[in-house]
Amino acid sequence: MTAAATGRDAVAGTVARVAAGVPGVAFLRPGLADLFRSSARTASRAAAGDTPAGVRVSRASEAGPWEVDVQIVVHRGHRAVAVARAVRDAVTAALSGAAPGAQVTVTVTNAV
Amino acid sequence: MAMNSGAELPGPGTGTGPATGPGSGGADGSADDERLACGRLLSEVWEAWEDGAGAPDRDPHLRACPHCSAAVRQLDLLGVAVREAGGGREPEWDTGALTERVMDVVRLELRPGRPLPLGEREEDLWVREAMAAKALRAAAETVPGVRAGSCLIRPAESGGSPSRGPVRVRLEVVVPLAPRLRDLAEEVRRRVHGAADDALGLPVDHVDVHITDVTEPAGTDPEHPAGTEEGNQP
Asked: Count of domains in chain A?
């Protein structure tokens, strides 16, 4: 359980770092409501580590591929689908070593 | 596992009914999602912050309550993020404009709407309805004198959850009085279509433009009413 959580956090951290660096990405989805919704579960959050907002990582089984969900806010003036594709490609490439075959979903939630 | 619920995930295997699911922008349960441990709604706290209620004598609870003050701190962090995101292009941020941008992000956070497809059918890329609607309304308003109202974006075909097929847009507009309203509506439709493609990458099957009201074009020469001219895009 702890090892699995550690692996998940490592993947999530990589995803957050790579996604935030893609041109056209303003920031990851802030996840403000999530923050408060989960405040009652502070202990379990601490145990699971500080997963970055806008990134969700899961896997159906211990040996299954990672499912990565990235939610981004883009800069105005950038084509949303182009930024989303760039994020998907960058995240897929970054995970090719540690988590090959990861399924990456990208959602654009806003533009600023 | 200490997993999040994944309730808003648009990805495969989540959500049995996108039209009624908790992440689809329906009103069900959203109020509960926003309620802080002190009983206040997140949106109320943020609106109070927006209205400048930070002064202690106006609402002592906001300052004293750890939940509310934490919520306000998050807004400040978001303000920093938005300011940095706008850096370089708009260096002259005034407080009002920044607050408006921050609240814009907050509103879309609370009411993101359903996920809509971006790109090709086989891709796993999405845009939230609220953001897409905002972009399409703005495109409609590039036609001089046009004001956009409700903008609903729905899958044009049934099946799938959520659908990856092209969408149907239903946009309500108020337009200036013009001799040829049909041409004006056609121009709005053309720009909305263009923005869906150019700004988003959202596959659109059909755009319905509903003229809900007609206004006298303010400040224009009555001999030459605005509304049918090309151009004037920002």
From this structure: 1
